[in-house]
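So, does this match?
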Amino acid sequence: MDFDISLAKVPSLGRRIGALLYDSTLLLGVLILALMLVVIPYGLLTGTTPDGHPVSLLLMRLYLLGIIGGFYVFFWSRGGQTLGMRAWRFRVIRDDGTNLSGRDALRRLGWATLSLAPAGIGLWWSLIDRDGLAWHDRRSRTRLVMLQRQSATTTGGTPRRSGGSTASADT
C-alpha cells in the first residue's frame, strides 16, 4: 500500500516510546520461549546451563540478539507494524510511501540500534527535527506515519471489518 507522504502525520515521541514499551513486553515473552527452547535441551544433554561456559554464553547472547532483530525485521517487512505500533496506530514505510522490504527493515534495525545506543539520543532528535524524524528514520530512508482510526460500524449499524488502514492527515 502506498501513502501520500505529504498528507501523513508523524507519531509523537510519546507514541513511539509507548509502542517500544508495548513491544518490549511482547518481546520478553518471545525471548523467554526462545531461551527455553535452547536451555532445556542443553541442560538435558550436558547437565549444565549455558552460562557455565564463556563460549556457550556468548552464543546464547548472539542467539537472543538475533531473535530481537528477527522480531522487528519480520514485522516491519510484513505489514509495517509490530503489535505495539498497531496498538498506537502507526506504521513504518519507506520515504517514497511504499512498504519496507527485508533489506529496508534490516537497514532500519541497524540504524535504530546505533541511534538508540547513546541514551536514545537519536530518538530524542525527533523532537527538534523539522519533519519529526529520528536519526534512524533519516539514515534508513524510512518513516513512521499515523493511521486513521477505523470506525466500528458502517452507516447501516452493522459491524464492519477493516481490511487495511490509510495514512492520516487529521490525527
In short: Strands lie at 90-94, 142-146. Residues 13-146 form one domain.
